[in-house]
Design goal:
26% strand, 39% helix, 5 strands, single chain, Transcription Regulator spoIIAA, alpha/beta
Length: 121
């Protein structure tokens, strides 16, 4: 399950997973981001804030996640991973080979620092 909100004035999407991601979670996020992108060229950033990443509910959730990344990675300038999850903290090194966005990880308690980094030019 995830909650998400758009900080429209900052062009930032904030995503907070609180359990395994489902296809419905990703569809809701996609709709929100796509609605914003209908009237804007890109998002300045995506901030993902979760203490631990719980994975995906099922294969459909994973596939929707991959589709979101494939369809949006060129429209998002920065991705901040704000988490204590060791698995997610290595994501910037792995993802940099496949994703156009600049990616950086932060400790879970460094939300404000992560938001400041995403806001910066």
């Amino acid at each position: 399950m995830i909650t998400h909100k758009m900080l429209a004035d900052d062009a930032i999407a904030v995503v907070e997973p609180s359990g395994p991601l489902s296809a419905e979670d990703l569809e809701s996020l996609t709709k929100s981001v796509d609605t914003y992108l209908e009237s804007h060229d890109c998002l300045k950033g995506l901030l993902i804030h979760t203490q631990q990443f719980s994975g995906w509910e099922d294969l459909d959730g994973l596939m929707h996640h991959f589709k979101f990344v494939k369809d949006h990675h060129r429209k998002i300038r920065k991705v901040a991973l704000v988490t204590d999850s060791k698995l997610v903290s290595i994501a910037p090194r792995l993802a940099s080979h496949f994703i156009a966005a600049e990616i950086r990880s932060f400790d879970y308690d460094a939300y404000d620092d992560a938001l400041a980094w995403v806001r910066s030019e």
